């Protein structure tokens, strides 16, 4: 019955990254660099890109933000990605998703040098993760794993149910849990008897995008619950902003679970911390230095 404080864990992680950035700077004579590319003016993406740039600078790294108009063609975007691939000062490249409809996100991600793919979405990194080789791992599931290990220590033999099978969250989450020797079940929109399945989980990860779908009676007493969902409810009255909630009915679940991440303040802050960490790892690797640990 405790809340997992993602904000505090992320702050500690960001401090550790900042120390290692300093070490890198002394050794190599430059700071690690992260390039973030935004196409169009989606307000949520704009906020995320701003937050990523700010966090990068706070960690002592160099931030390069490229804001392109919504009408940018796929070819132009790919040419920018190739320039960033060749740029010695850039260790990490992140193209903010979603992209406008006329651009094929897969083709753009394919163009990123896998060694600079700090989002971990390139098929080379997805493949490396699935066969257990060193990879740049998608930031959100990597952050979830970090929280789970902090909370539980050894995950070996535990039954983990991951609800959601996206390439960004669900699938890499399942791979990471498998690597930790958990017994993993992946559920999705066609899964039968989901409440019953969820109730068999020692670790329940919800990455669906449906507000408060997971109810208290879906949770095994004593389970650890990681809520990845970020959903905005309709505003209670005009002129207000709707409340942010996760995929789990937090108020009900809190009394059943042993530990649970709140929304906001759980998984969200971990995503940016892991992006910084991935940029650091990419920078060390590009310079032929040992992994920063
Ligand atoms: P996607 O929409 O890509 O995937 C959602 C998954 O949920 C799909 O696999 C889908 O199944 C499954 N699903 C949908 N409805 C149901 C249902 N009724 N029962 C069981 N499974 C269902 O979303 P993402 O993975 O990108 O994101 C999931 C959530 O996490 C969103 O709320 C998003 O905002 C949030 N998010 C948060 C981040 C953070 O930093 N905290 C980062 C990334 C995402 P199927 O495959 O069968 O369609």
Automatic annotation (TrEMBL):
<feature type="domain" description="Tetrahydrofolate dehydrogenase/cyclohydrolase catalytic">
    <location>
        <begin position="4"/>
        <end position="119"/>
    </location>
</feature>
<dbReference type="GO" id="GO:0006164">
    <property type="term" value="P:purine nucleotide biosynthetic process"/>
</dbReference>
<keyword id="KW-0511">Multifunctional enzyme</keyword>
<comment type="similarity">
    <text>Belongs to the tetrahydrofolate dehydrogenase/cyclohydrolase family.</text>
</comment>
<keyword id="KW-0521">NADP</keyword>
<protein>
    <recommendedName>
        <fullName>Bifunctional protein FolD</fullName>
        <ecNumber>1.5.1.5</ecNumber>
        <ecNumber>3.5.4.9</ecNumber>
    </recommendedName>
</protein>
<keyword id="KW-0028">Amino-acid biosynthesis</keyword>
<keyword id="KW-0560">Oxidoreductase</keyword>
<keyword id="KW-0486">Methionine biosynthesis</keyword>
<feature type="domain" description="Tetrahydrofolate dehydrogenase/cyclohydrolase NAD(P)-binding">
    <location>
        <begin position="138"/>
        <end position="284"/>
    </location>
</feature>
<dbReference type="GO" id="GO:0004477">
    <property type="term" value="F:methenyltetrahydrofolate cyclohydrolase activity"/>
</dbReference>
<comment type="pathway">
    <text>One-carbon metabolism; tetrahydrofolate interconversion.</text>
</comment>
<dbReference type="InterPro" id="IPR020630">
    <property type="entry name" value="THF_DH/CycHdrlase_cat_dom"/>
</dbReference>
<dbReference type="GO" id="GO:0000105">
    <property type="term" value="P:L-histidine biosynthetic process"/>
</dbReference>
<keyword id="KW-0378">Hydrolase</keyword>
<dbReference type="GO" id="GO:0035999">
    <property type="term" value="P:tetrahydrofolate interconversion"/>
</dbReference>
<dbReference type="InterPro" id="IPR036291">
    <property type="entry name" value="NAD(P)-bd_dom_sf"/>
</dbReference>
<keyword id="KW-0368">Histidine biosynthesis</keyword>
<dbReference type="GO" id="GO:0005829">
    <property type="term" value="C:cytosol"/>
</dbReference>
<dbReference type="InterPro" id="IPR020631">
    <property type="entry name" value="THF_DH/CycHdrlase_NAD-bd_dom"/>
</dbReference>
<keyword id="KW-0554">One-carbon metabolism</keyword>
<comment type="function">
    <text>Catalyzes the oxidation of 5,10-methylenetetrahydrofolate to 5,10-methenyltetrahydrofolate and then the hydrolysis of 5,10-methenyltetrahydrofolate to 10-formyltetrahydrofolate.</text>
</comment>
<dbReference type="Pfam" id="PF02882">
    <property type="entry name" value="THF_DHG_CYH_C"/>
</dbReference>
<dbReference type="GO" id="GO:0004488">
    <property type="term" value="F:methylenetetrahydrofolate dehydrogenase (NADP+) activity"/>
</dbReference>
<feature type="binding site">
    <location>
        <begin position="164"/>
        <end position="166"/>
    </location>
    <ligand>
        <name>NADP(+)</name>
    </ligand>
</feature>
<dbReference type="InterPro" id="IPR000672">
    <property type="entry name" value="THF_DH/CycHdrlase"/>
</dbReference>
<dbReference type="Pfam" id="PF00763">
    <property type="entry name" value="THF_DHG_CYH"/>
</dbReference>
<keyword id="KW-0658">Purine biosynthesis</keyword>
<dbReference type="InterPro" id="IPR020867">
    <property type="entry name" value="THF_DH/CycHdrlase_CS"/>
</dbReference>
<feature type="binding site">
    <location>
        <position position="230"/>
    </location>
    <ligand>
        <name>NADP(+)</name>
    </ligand>
</feature>
<dbReference type="InterPro" id="IPR046346">
    <property type="entry name" value="Aminoacid_DH-like_N_sf"/>
</dbReference>
<dbReference type="GO" id="GO:0009086">
    <property type="term" value="P:methionine biosynthetic process"/>
</dbReference>
<comment type="subunit">
    <text>Homodimer.</text>
</comment>
């Amino acid at each position: 019955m405790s809340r997992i404080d993602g904000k505090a864990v992320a702050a500690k992680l960001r401090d550790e990254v900042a120390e290692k950035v300093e070490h890198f700077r002394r050794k190599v004579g430059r700071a690690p660099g992260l390039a973030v590319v935004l196409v169009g003016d989606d307000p949520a993406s704009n906020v995320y890109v701003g937050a990523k740039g700010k966090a990068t600078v706070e960690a002592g790294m160099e931030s390069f933000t490229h804001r392109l108009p919504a009408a940018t063609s796929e070819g132009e975007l790919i040419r920018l990605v190739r320039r960033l691939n060749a740029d010695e000062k850039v260790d990490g490249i992140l193209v903010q998703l979603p992209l406008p409809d006329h651009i094929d996100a897969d083709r753009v991600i394919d163009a990123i040098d896998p060694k600079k793919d700090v989002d971990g979405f390139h098929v080379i990194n997805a493949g490396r993760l699935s066969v257990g080789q060193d990879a740049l791992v998608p930031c959100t599931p990597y952050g979830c794993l970090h929280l789970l290990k902090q909370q539980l220590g050894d995950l070996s033999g535990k039954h983990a149910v991951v609800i959601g099978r996206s390439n960004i969250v669900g699938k890499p989450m399942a791979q990471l849990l498998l690597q930790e020797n958990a017994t993993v079940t992946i559920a999705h929109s066609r899964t039968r008897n989901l409440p019953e399945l969820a109730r068999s989980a020692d670790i329940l990860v919800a990455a669906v995008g449906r507000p408060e779908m997971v109810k208290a009676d879906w949770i095994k007493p004593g389970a650890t619950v990681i809520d990845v969902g970020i959903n905005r409810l309709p505003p209670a009255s005009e002129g207000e902003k709707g409340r942010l909630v996760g995929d789990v009915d937090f108020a009900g679940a809190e009394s059943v679970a042993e530990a649970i991440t709140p929304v906001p303040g759980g998984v969200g802050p971990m995503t940016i911390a892991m992006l910084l960490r991935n940029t650091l790892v990419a920078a060390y690797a590009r310079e032929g230095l040992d992994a920063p640990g």
